[in-house]
Structure formats: structure tokens, C-alpha cells
TrEMBL record:
Residues 378-396 have a biased composition (Polar residues). It comes from the Bacteria. This is OpgC protein. The chain crosses the membrane at residues 99-118, 156-175, 182-202, 208-228, 240-260, 280-299, 320-340, 346-367.
Length: 409
């Protein structure tokens, strides 16, 4: 264990302070939970609840927020695992997480197909991209197994499978040459827009979230964790805040002009819209960066509002992001069916939006309680084993011996 630690220090240099921190930034889980709510609201077609999301007030939506935060959390989690268990432990953890997301994607694909089949709705089968699964089940399942076929709204999960599996080499590069790694990511992003590079998909050869483009947000999130202290003064400066606000106002005017009434010349809106979400349009990327600058400036890490009931619910959803995202996809599919077959009125849209978010919160709290119960059992076992000084895992100064794990929530 000591040899492994000394070797990594010689190769990498000083460990990023974020990897050594024992605390948890509550803003991360809160933002991820709110993004999950926004994604659900946006996934229900023609839903009045989508006006509560950023989609109608600028260029980007919750997808950019969710992707960036995933890069941040991956860097924090896997970076601390590397410090504790070495590279082999970190690689094992990333591969297990990739497998979990892969299994969740396959199960969600089957769940969507079962839901559509039970409803017997042809319109829902077309809108959810599951009709081909019923017409060509063998080919569809085979292509789903290699991440080429995806029902509607499940597109992001295959992207996360790829990123988790490949995060170990990415972290290795970021720890040694963070700026060079970010530069390579930007170069790949630019080449995608210049040459139209994409990843093969089936049956229409369109991967909605092109991983060659969206990788930039994952890399950027991880880079911010490793190089955060160096660029934080610039991000928190007044010029950066002013530029961010000006860009947000510009995007707001254009978005409202596109969706409500012409506030600017039609030629300008036609030039900007529709934005290319599949390849992460530069305007969308800049809009997200502007939102991030404003959020960092206005919401400090110790903000009291993070303990409010609403944000506690958001944090609970953010801590269980994978099951809650899958639940949101199924709820959006059920909400779409309700609007098609029962009523598409305003009251029904509001009811579906509230019911869906409340159900996500209820399931997240249940999962949180189950996880807490499981985590207490090892603690009790460890306390029983450490009653005798002979088996104590602490040094004289109270710190843990190398390799001893602590339970965190």
C-alpha cells in the first residue's frame, strides 16, 4: 500500500485538494436532483411544466447541467478511490459503475417496451421509438446490447456507459497534463463540428447525444475539479459575471422571440434556431458556461438554502440519480400516454408534472433509507471488531491506518 502511494505521488505530484476533502458539496446533489426534475418535465411532450425548465429561456437545457455534474462527480469519486485503493481499485469501481448503467439501460429498454405493449397505443409506439422493437425484436435487442438502438429518452445512458468505462485513462491524463487533456477534448469537439463525425447507431444512424461532442462537458467537469483552484479567481471575477449575464440576456431574448413573438429580426432567429443538440452546439455550450458562472457566484457552498425542504428533496434525488432517471423516463412515457388518451388539458398537465416529481422524491427517499440501513450494519460490525485495542484501526493520533475505509453518505 505504501509503495503504491509513493509511486503515484512521484508520477502525479501534489494531489488535488478536492480529492483529499472529506466533506460533500451539497450543491452537486441539489443541482443534479433539480436537473432530473427538469429532464422529466421536458420529456413529457406539450407539457406546461416545461416552462419551469431552462429550455424555454435560453439555448441549453438540463442535459448540459447533468452531463457536466457527472464529470465533476466522476472526478471526485474516482479520484478519491485512486487515492485510497490505487489505480486497480479505481478501474474496478469505474467498470462496475459502467456495468450498472449498462444493465439499467437494458432493463429500461425492456420496461419501455412492456409499458407500450400493455397500453396498445400505436401513437405511443411511434413516439417512443419502440415500434421497431416489436417488428424486429431480434435485431433491436442485438443492437441495444451494443448500445446502437435506444428508445426515446434513454439516449443518455449509453453515453454514460462509455464515459465510465473510459474514465480511468481520462483521469490518468488529467492528473498528468490537465490543460493538454482539455485542449485535446476541445480539438475533438471542433473536429466533430467541422467534419460531422459521429458514432454509428441503428436504425437511423443518428446517436442523439453524440459522445464525440458531449465528451467535452465530461472532461470539462473533471478538469474543473483538478484545476479548480487555479481558475476560480477568474470565474468569480466581476468581468466574468458581467459577460455571463449579458450572454444570458441575449439568449433569453432570442429564445422568447423564437417561442412567443418576434422580439428580434426573423433572419437572426432563423440563423440561430434550431440549435444542434446532438452535437452540442457552441451556443448551447456557451449558455451553459454562463449559467455556471452565475450559479457559482450566487450560490456559495455553505448557502443555507441547501437545507430547505425543497432542496433536501432535490439532494435526495441527486444522490440516487441512476434509478431516479430511469423512473423519470417511465413516468414521462406514462404521462405522454395520459395526455394522448385521457386529456391534454392544462389541469392534467399540471397534475402530471406534480405527481411525477412527487413520485420521484418518494422513491428517492425510500432508496436513501435503504442505503442508510445498509451502511449502518457494517458500522456496527466494525465497532464490535474495534472494541479491543488489539484490533483497533486507528493510530495514536486518531487517524486511520492506510487502507482503512470510512463510510460516507
Amino acid at each position: 500500500m505504501l509503495d503504491r502511494t509513493h509511486t503515484s505521488k512521484r508520477l502525479i505530484g501534489e494531489t488535488p485538494p478536492e480529492f483529499r476533502g472529506a466533506g460533500r458539496d451539497l450543491r452537486i446533489d441539489a443541482c443534479r436532483g433539480i436537473a432530473l426534475w427538469w429532464i422529466f418535465l421536458d420529456h413529457v411532450p406539450n407539457n406546461i411544466g416545461s416552462w419551469l425548465t431552462p429550455r424555454n429561456y435560453g439555448f441549453c437545457d438540463a442535459a448540459e447541467i447533468f452531463m457536466f455534474i457527472s464529470g465533476v462527480t466522476c472526478a471526485l469519486a474516482y479520484g478519491r478511490t485512486r487515492q485510497r485503493d490505487g489505480w486497480s481499485g479505481m478501474i474496478g469501481r469505474s467498470l462496475r459503475r459502467g456495468w450498472d448503467i449498462y444493465a439499467a439501460f437494458l432493463l429500461l429498454t425492456l420496461a419501455c417496451a412492456v409499458l407500450v405493449y400493455l397500453t396498445g397505443s400505436d401513437d405511443l409506439a411511434d413516439d417512443s421509438n419502440t415500434r421497431i422493437l416489436f417488428e424486429q425484436p431480434g435485431a433491436s435487442l442485438a443492437h441495444a446490447a451494443i448500445l446502437q438502438y435506444r428508445p426515446v429518452n434513454t439516449d443518455v445512458l449509453p453515453v454514460f456507459v462509455i464515459f465510465h468505462v473510459l474514465f480511468a485513462p481520462l483521469l490518468w491524463l488529467l492528473l498528468r497534463a490537465p490543460n493538454v487533456t482539455l485542449g485535446l477534448s476541445l480539438a475533438l469537439y471542433a473536429l466533430v463540428h467541422v467534419f460531422g463525425w459521429s458514432v454509428p447507431a441503428w436504425p437511423n444512424s443518428v446517436w442523439f447525444f453524440n459522445p464525440l461532442a458531449w465528451q467535452l462537458l465530461i472532461v470539462l467537469g473533471a478538469w474543473c475539479v483538478i484545476e479548480g483552484e487555479k481558475f476560480r479567481p477568474w470565474v468569480m471575477s466581476r468581468p466574468a459575471l458581467v459577460l455571463a449575464i449579458l450572454y444570458l440576456v441575449f439568449s433569453l431574448v432570442l429564445a422568447l422571440s423564437w417561442g412567443i413573438k418576434p422580439l428580434v429580426p426573423q433572419a437572426l432567429t432563423d440563423l440561430v434556431f434550431p440549435l444542434d443538440k446532438s452535437n452540442l452546439s457552441p451556443l448551447r455550450l456557451l449558455h451553459f458556461l454562463a449559467l455556471a458562472v452565475v450559479a457559482l457566484r450566487l450560490i456559495p457552498q455553505d448557502w443555507r438554502g441547501l437545507s430547505s425542504p425543497v432542496l433536501r428533496c432535490a439532494r435526495c434525488c441527486g444522490e440516487n440519480s441512476l434509478p431516479i432517471y430511469c423512473l423519470g423516463v417511465l413516468l414521462a412515457l406514462a404521462g405522454h400516454l395520459t395526455l394522448l388518451d385521457i386529456s391534454a388539458g392544462l389541469a392534467m398537465q399540471i397534475l402530471l408534472s406534480l405527481a411525477g416529481i412527487l413520485m420521484m422524491i418518494a422513491v428517492a427517499r425510500l432508496l436513501h433509507a435503504i442505503n442508510n440501513k445498509r451502511s449502518r450494519q457494517p458500522q456496527r460490525t466494525q465497532m464490535d471488531e474495534t472494541v479491543s485495542p488489539t484490533f483497533s484501526s486507528c493510530q495514536a493520533d486518531g487517524t486511520l491506518w492506510p487502507g482503512t475505509r470510512t463510510t460516507s453518505h
